[in-house]
């Protein structure tokens, strides 16, 4: 798959997106949810979670690769920086982002945040679902997302003990919290 080359179209910068002189940090939080793809939708695709491929698992459905961990982190960063959300910045009305990787979104969002005067202080992302079993690859997920986000990202995983759509194995969810700090001038 070829990554889109066009730059995302952010919302017009709201006055609140400007870096006030007194700002010391901003906090953002987000959730992302995707259903597992049907066998027809899954053809030729690989499950991507936390910017890592999971080749022996059913991929997620979505306009992009459906990486719930990357999407939740992007939404948390965008929200903290008052730059909109994934839907408004990379919406399904923008075909250049169809099939894009969570990696491509994360790099673009980090660049947008930097242009607004913010960098990641730290983040936590929790993936919720029964599959894939992430424990053995959590250090790799943390390393990959930290590299892409240009700041420390802690990735964890949990199940819902059989409750809800994630417990029934219908899809995955992810929660993200970020602390954004001003870029030194």
How would you describe this protein?
The chain is an alpha+beta fold and 185 residues long. Helix content is 28%, strand content 24%. A four-stranded mixed sheet has the order 1-6-4-5. A two-stranded antiparallel ribbon has the order 2-3. Helix 2 (68-80) runs parallel beside helix 4 (102-115).
Uncertain regions: pLDDT < 50 for 5+ in a row?
1-6, 11-15
Q: Roughly how many Å apart are the termini?
A: 38 Å
Helix content estimate: 25-40%
Radius of gyration: 16 Å
How confident is the prediction overall: mean pLDDT? 89
Task: Based on Cα principal axes, name the global outline.
Answer: globular
Main pleated-sheet profile: 4 strands, mixed
Number of helical segments? 6
Strand order of the largest sheet: 1-6-4-5
Give the topology string: H per helix, E per strand: EHEEHHHEHEHE
- Count of individual beta strands: 6
Oligomerization state = single chain
Structural class assignment: alpha+beta
Strand content: 15-25%
Task: Give the key terms.
single chain; 185 residues; alpha+beta; 4-stranded mixed sheet; two-stranded antiparallel ribbon; 6 helices; disordered N terminus
Give the SSE layout.
Blueprint: E1 26-35, H1 39-42, E2 47-49, E3 52-54, H2 68-80, H3 86-90, H4 102-115, E4 118-128, H5 138-149, E5 153-158, H6 164-167, E6 171-182
Parallel strand pairs: 4-5
Antiparallel strand pairs: 1-6, 2-3, 4-6
In a few lines, what is going on in this structure?
The protein is α+β, with helices and mostly antiparallel strands and 185 residues long.
